[in-house]
Each structure stands twice: as structure tokens, then as C-alpha cells.
């Protein structure tokens, strides 16, 4: 998880450095968060069984 967080922060910094629009960055962050939550939910549901 720590490595993923570092890579994600690095990705955000690169996005701003490259001049991405704020909405584009927020859209990508939203997709990333939804994807992460989806994976966590799947893992938790698998753990219940």
C-alpha cells in the first residue's frame, strides 16, 4: 500500500507539472479512488467466504 501511495502522489505531481487541467486530474483521481474501493470491496467479500 505504501508503494502504491508513493506512486500515486508521484503521478499527481507529474500531472500538475505537465499542465493538466484541474478537472482532468480530478476525473483521473475519482476513477482511481473508485477502482481502489472496488478492489477493496471484492477482497473483503472474498474474505467473508
UniProtKB/TrEMBL annotation:
Keywords: Membrane, Transmembrane, Transmembrane helix
Domain of life: Bacteria
Bilayer-crossing regions: 26-45
The UniProt record lists the keyword Transmembrane helix: yes
Protein name as annotated: Inner membrane protein
